[in-house]
Amino acid sequence: MFERVWIKSKELFEGVIKSDQFPESIAVRDCTLREGEQAADIVFSVEDKLQIAERLESIGIRRIQVGMPGRSEIDKNVFERLKGSKISREAFILAYGLKWKEEIDQAISVGASSVDIVMPCSEYRLKEIMNLSQEEMLRISQEAIIYGKNNGLNVSFVPSDTTRASLKFLQEIGQMAAQSGADFLFVADTVGVATPETMRLIVRSLRDLGVKLGVHAHNDLGLGLANAIAAVQEGAVVVDVCINGLGERAGGVALDEFVVVVQELFCQPLGIKTESLYALSKFVESLTGFSIPPTKPLVGSQAFAHKLDTHIQGVSKYMPAYQGINPQVVGRKIDVILGNLSGPFAIRKKAQDLQISLEEENIDKIVQIVRNSASSLKRALTDAEFIDIASGFMKPQKG
Fold this sequence. Notes:
eight-stranded parallel barrel; 10 strands
């Protein structure tokens, strides 16, 4: 066992935890196979989706949004091949399409356990794009929800662009969803413009209407994770996430970030194996060719990297001095970076990590060469480049 997070001055932190009412159970629903594929330059094959689903199930994810079997042969195939899986397989239905009933029928035929019925609710979409009144939106949505329930499906109703609709209309939507028998009502920040305060207000206004709430947040302004946390703190019980934060435009809530924040900082059990998150992220990166940003929290290449000599010395002596979370939580370790700010300790530590024996009297020379090389290259040195430099200063092999 290892220490997972380091927060010794907890007075304010614990006060925040105690003041927020987390639900007894929070479900993490991964949407990588559907929302993730809407990201630019992302295309999944049937085998890609099956491999991702298998890995999600192995780390403890119990709900995945597979896709649109009524509109995609690939998604239809994936559903059929996942029929033996214990994971909840959920379909995405666009209720504003003319063939929503056929799409629900198709979801049933391929073994979907749940459906998301999606219908726009903001004036930006209802009036300007769909040419529908609020009354027509409510009527069509109710018909779709009831049809899904009458056919034995678990139904989530998603009024897309929730965060740009009026609170009055949202309450009408919530009442309709509850009366129609919807199992879940999602607050969808479809274009990523909500603030955590907005999210809290909306969830509070809907949570007592008789239908469980979920949240689907986008990251256009960098607030996706904060909005998802705000939603569960007000009572939402399902949160949509994607591996590596993949999704349309700027993406959505990253699976790894939401899980670690909720399980490690707020101590709310989700049943997910965090130590496997990094491997999962790297697998999807290799599968898609879509590079993880180096500074992305937790799984980016620089997330646990240290370059300053004093920081490397400190983190080597006592990791909590320069880390709030243990990298082992997500299956990682501290990475020593050699660059223009490197000093003697960093050189020794990197040599130790690479199992290189250096003559002590040459350390200062190596420091200068490393600094000059990094300044010339305008970047940190790779391990291979350091080995090349160090090769001229290694201790001679005995025997």
